[in-house]
Specification:
The complex is a heterodimer of chains A (about 800) and B (about 170). Chain A has about 800 residues and is α+β, with helices and mostly antiparallel strands. Chain A is built from 21 helices and 29 strands. Chain B has about 170 residues and is α+β, with helices and mostly antiparallel strands. Chain B folds into 2 domains: about 80 residues, Ubiquitin-like (UB roll) (Roll), CATH 3.10.20; about 80 residues, DNA polymerase, domain 1 (Orthogonal Bundle). In chain B, helix 2 packs across helix 5. Chain B is globular. Classes of the chains: A alpha+beta (about 800), B alpha+beta (about 170). At the A-B interface, helix 1, helix 4 and helix 19 of A face helix 1, helix 2, helix 3 and helix 5 of B. Bound molecules: FE2/S2 (inorganic) cluster (FES) (2 copies). One FE2/S2 (inorganic) cluster sits at the interface of chains B and A. One FE2/S2 (inorganic) cluster binds next to loops of chain B.
């Protein structure tokens, strides 16, 4: 029997290529391409009075220079604003930018002009010669300014409010009024960003001979980009191929599309008849891609003597930046997922999504959950402090119990479906995290450290994450006559090891050697129906679709082999790529031969195909391809779940705070994680490690430092402090809990985002525990902690 | 075509000499990637902070985004493409990254591999703390570094066995 691959720590097949420097990222393709550069607004809010490109027109090596005026004549839809991708009904005042600014700019970094030249150096020289005259307008920067609404981002959007949304289950106000105890809290999280090491990039080639556009882009959705490019450029979808090559990290920012450059580059390629490429530089990534996280929250909570929630009312304000191409996904997720593993009693939530003159906001790993988790967990800690109870006791009493699954919250989730948890065992998880971090032994440790003049604190935070949102993903499998198995799924890969994990699934289901399976992702030529890689959905969605497609391929292989072997389908199995009578090795035929038999040929070109000509296969009295069958040993299927599956986890951290300098050091970090069945535990743990590092960054270092004029003052790796190895925990203790999802055939739940979600909540709790005063805003730097100490001890 | 003044230089990369004509301002990273087609060297920031573009210049790790191509003309350069063993198998650092799951998206990886190659040459048996110090100037947004630290120690082991075998 072949060893089962699912659940095994299989080394990644993609790594050989990567470690040799043979990865293929967008900037590596089309070496003959011309290079594009974009002139970006230096002002956060201004009207454009004039743009003069005359000095560029006859520069050596410059091939094109465009402003807004040039676009509509080339393709009418290019004169329209960029699409509003997720038009939620409550987004009453959605606004999107133009590919190149028309009349007005609303953030520093907004695209104004586009130049194509022999190389990037010359293109940037050209940008320097474009003269733009602006009438400056006052900028709205930060949530306070947006809420005050003394100035507006968009003249026709009153109060800067893009959307106001409200959800409730029960009468929270009444429940709080009647509760024995109440608390109110104000909690804030600052702006941050995904910051993949590879920025955005796009390359395009117009194939004049075939009349086709070939586009490579560093995206999380090649099918999304394809549809958008076809629509905006006025091309038939069938003439547009989008290929997502290797992607140097995404973390959410590359799900937004189409970026202006994803339209301008193919338009230029078509017009110039030359390959054209745009590679974003780091400063551009800071000021012209997307950010997230910035939110202010006000909580009213009512609870009983034991800390049981009776009513929870959350009002929050979400900074959506200058435009809303990605709709309200982030605040909707905060508003629903802040509930975590708890029963809130009566619940009411309301948010305003607000415009500011800053970079747009789209999901960053966790997508609104880190904020929600921060709000709920800070509330739990505040209740425990108020009642003088252990923080885990208050949590314990509010947990949803395993026998309450599926648990309905009575709310609507981000996908428009009911917020219903499918699985999870939160009490066991709490027990495990307490053990893993040493919760019950901590007071002894604290005393020991105190005796040495050292100050330590412990904190913990829990989350539930809706993963694997719909609508669907698909897979197509072809077994070649060599026996090699070629698999295509449409969503993209940006480091998750899909080539390995998906091959494991195929090897198990189809019964073929792992090495014979090759996975292709994100290539619309191979799988034109797909959604994308976001919301921790790839393993759940494409994993399930691949499993189903492998099942179909296997059924077909068995049908064909049964005829050839004159055996019953039920008596056959596939082992190591050979179809054989169960338990009798040596009796069978290889899948390659089955593939030959599946495709009756007229023409032979080698020995294998000779065997498949009409003279050699099949019953001469029947049609060569039976009714209802198709030629080829292939299988295709789609997976479309009724709703998301809910992963969960708890993190705990022990920190030390320096009594003098307020420096914050991590002494221990523990994770308990439930993503159902694991396909490849090594990859899952890698995802957790990376998520935790981003959680550390979000809690202690990373913030977007805008000044009041809307200039981003830390738009470089020098000033935006992402963790190096010196900032992350030296080791992370991880324990898995596997409560399988009942919603998909493999029982899996997503794992990609989880590691980052509880970071700020857990660190805030631990620092609060060390210092003895409330921590209500994150991230927190040593100097901020130092100031807080001064304020509290004054 | 541009009228920029070009300089004909010889770049010696991974033991192979290349003649290129470049303007004085062309970054070494761009010359490697776009003029020589050695796209294994990646560019993550172009301001010397992330380390993705690290190559070995006469054996010393240098940020190729902070050097002009013309200034590298007299040096022996090693990029990630030059780290495999002579027989084509993975070199010790490459092998260690694969074994320890030291990479995810792979974008930062070439800079780590070159840095560590030089690092374990200087310190053939680093402690965990020394391993951390060795990579403390390189950014990775995917892995959280724990497995990269493991890979440094594993690479040192592999390199020791490898050179031990070579000595026999
Ligand atoms: S690209 Fe050279 S250090 Fe970042
Ligand atoms: S593996 Fe993606 S940045 Fe390091």
């Amino acid at each position: 029997m072949t060893t089962r691959m699912m659940g095994a720590k299989v080394a990644r097949v993609e790594d050989d290529r990567f470690v040799r420097g043979h990865g293929r990222y967008v900037d590596d393709v089309a070496p003959d391409a011309l290079h594009a550069a974009v002139l970006r607004s230096p002002h956060a809010h201004a009207r454009i009075r004039s743009i003069d490109v005359d000095a560029v027109l006859d520069l050596d090596g410059v091939h094109a220079v465009w402003t807004y005026e040039d676009l509509a004549p080339l393709a009418p839809a290019m004169g329209e604003p960029l699409p509003l991708l997720i038009p939620h009904p409550t987004l009453t005042h959605g606004r999107t930018q133009y590919a190149l600014a028309k009349d007005e700019v609303n953030y520093v970094g907004e695209a104004i002009a586009f130049v194509v030249a022999d190389d990037r150096y010359l293109a940037e020289d050209a940008l320097d010669r474009i003269v733009v005259e602006y009438d400056l307008l006052p900028a709205v920067v930060g949530i306070d300014a947006a809420r005050a609404a003394e100035r507006l981002v968009h003249e026709d959007v009153p109060g800067n409010v893009a959307a106001r949304m409200e959800q409730a289950n029960g009468d929270a106000a009444a429940a709080i009024a009647a509760a024995p105890h109440t608390l109110s809290l104000d909690l804030e999280i600052e702006r941050s960003a995904c910051m993949p090491l590879e920025g955005r990039g796009v390359a395009a080639r117009w194939d004049t001979d075939n009349g086709r556009l070939q586009l490579w882009t560093s995206t999380q959705t090649s099918t999304g980009v394809r549809a958008a490019v076809a629509a905006k450029l006025g091309l038939d979808l069938m003439r547009v191929d989008v290929i997502t090559p290797d992607v140097g990290g995404g973390f959410g920012v590359k799900i937004n599309h189409p970026w202006p450059e994803e339209l301008l580059v193919p338009l230029a390629a078509r017009l110039l008849g030359r390959a054209v490429k745009f590679t974003e530089d780091r400063r551009e990534h800071f000021i012209s891609s997307a950010h997230e996280r910035g939110q202010q929250h006000h909580v009213e909570v009512g609870f009983d003597d034991e800390g049981r929630l009776l009513g929870l009312d959350v009002r929050f304000w979400h900074d959506n930046g200058a435009y809303t191409p990605y709709g309200l996904i982030v605040p909707i997720i905060t508003s629903t997922q802040l509930l975590g593993p708890y029963k809130p009693g009566a619940y009411h939530v309301q948010f305003d999504s607000l415009y500011t003159n800053t970079v747009i906001v789209t999901p960053y790993r966790g997508a609104g959950r880190p904020q929600g988790c921060f709000v709920m967990e800070r509330t739990m800690d505040a209740i425990a402090a108020y009642l003088g109870k252990d923080r885990t006791e208050v949590r314990s009493i509010n947990l949803i119990q395993p026998d309450e699954m599926p648990y309905e919250h009575g709310l609507t989730f981000q996908d428009g479906r009911e917020l219903t948890y499918d699985s999870g065992d939160f009490p066991t998880m709490l027990t495990k995290i307490k053990e893993l971090v040493g919760w019950d032994e901590f007071e002894t440790f604290r005393a020991e450290m105190a005796a040495q003049g050292r100050r330590v604190g412990i904190g913990l935070a829990a989350y539930v994450e809706g993963t694997g949102v719909g609508p669907y993903e698909g897979a197509h499998i072809t077994v070649e006559t060599s026996g090699k198995v070629k698999v295509a799924t449409g969503l993209t890969t940006q480091g998750q090891g899909h080539q390995t994990a998906f091959a494991q699934i195929v090897a198990d289901e189809l019964g073929v050697p792992f090495e014979d399976v090759e996975i292709t992702t994100g290539d619309t030529r191979r799988m034109p129906y797909a959604v994308g890689t976001f919301a921790s959905r790839a393993a759940v969605m494409s994993g399930s679709a691949i499993h189903l497609a492998a099942k179909k391929t296997k059924e077909k292989a068995l049908r064909i082999a049964a005829e050839a072997l004159e055996a019953d389908v039920e008596d056959l199995e596939i082992v190591d790529g050979v179809v054989q009578v169960k338990g009798s090795p040596g009796s069978g035929i290889g899948l390659g031969t089955v593939a030959v038999l599946s495709n009756p040929l007229r023409y032979a070109f080698d020995e294998a195909s000779k065997a498949a000509t009409q003279f050699n296969v099949g019953d001469p009295t029947k049609p060569p391809v039976a009714a209802g069958e198709e030629p080829g040993l292939e299988g295709k299927d789609f997976y479309s779940p009724p709703r998301s599956t809910f992963a969960s986890g708890m993190h705990a951290v022990i920190v030390e705070t320096d009594p003098l300098t307020a420096e914050i050091t991590i002494l221990k970090y523990a994770v308990v994680h439930d993503c159902g069945h694991l396909i490849n535990p090594m990859i899952v743990e890698g995802q957790i490690h990376g998520g935790v590092a981003q959680g550390v960054g979000g809690a202690l270092y990373e913030r977007m430092a805008y000044d009041e004029a809307g200039q981003l003052q830390n738009a470089s790796f020098m000033d935006f402090l992402m963790p190096y190895v010196t900032e992350v925990p030296t080791s992370i203790d991880i324990d898995h809990l596997e409560t399988p999802s009942p919603l998909n055939p493999l029982g899996i739940k997503g794992a990609g985002e989880a590691g980052v979600i509880p970071g700020s909540a857990a660190f805030a709790a631990a620092i609060e525990d060390a210092e003895g005063f409330p921590i209500t805003a994150m991230p927190i730097s040593p100097s901020q902690l130092f100031d807080l100490r001064a304020a509290h001890h004054a | 075509m541009s009228t920029e003044q070009l300089h004909r230089i010889r770049l010696q990369v991974n033991g192979v000499a290349h003649e290129v004509e470049v303007p004085a301002r062309r970054l070494l990273s761009d010359a490697l990637r776009h003029d020589l087609g050695l796209t294994g060297t990646h560019v993550g920031c172009e301001h010397g902070v992330c380390g993705a573009c690290t190559i070995l210049v006469d054996g010393t790790p240098m940020r190729s985004c902070l050097m002009f191509a013309v200034s590298a003309a007299d040096s022996e350069l090693t990029t990630v493409e030059g780290l495999a063993n002579a027989d084509g198998t993975l070199g010790p650092v490459q092998q260690a990254f694969r074994e320890c799951h030291g990479l995810q998206c792979g974008f930062c990886t070439p800079g780590f591999l070159t840095t560590i190659t030089a690092g374990i040459k200087e310190n053939p048996s680093p402690s965990e703390d020394e391993a951390r110090e060795m990579i403390a100037g390189n950014l990775c947004r995917c892995t959280g570094y724990q497995n990269i630290v493991k890979a440094v120690c594993r690479a040192a082991e592999l390199a020791a066995t490898h050179s031990g075998e070579a000595d026999q």
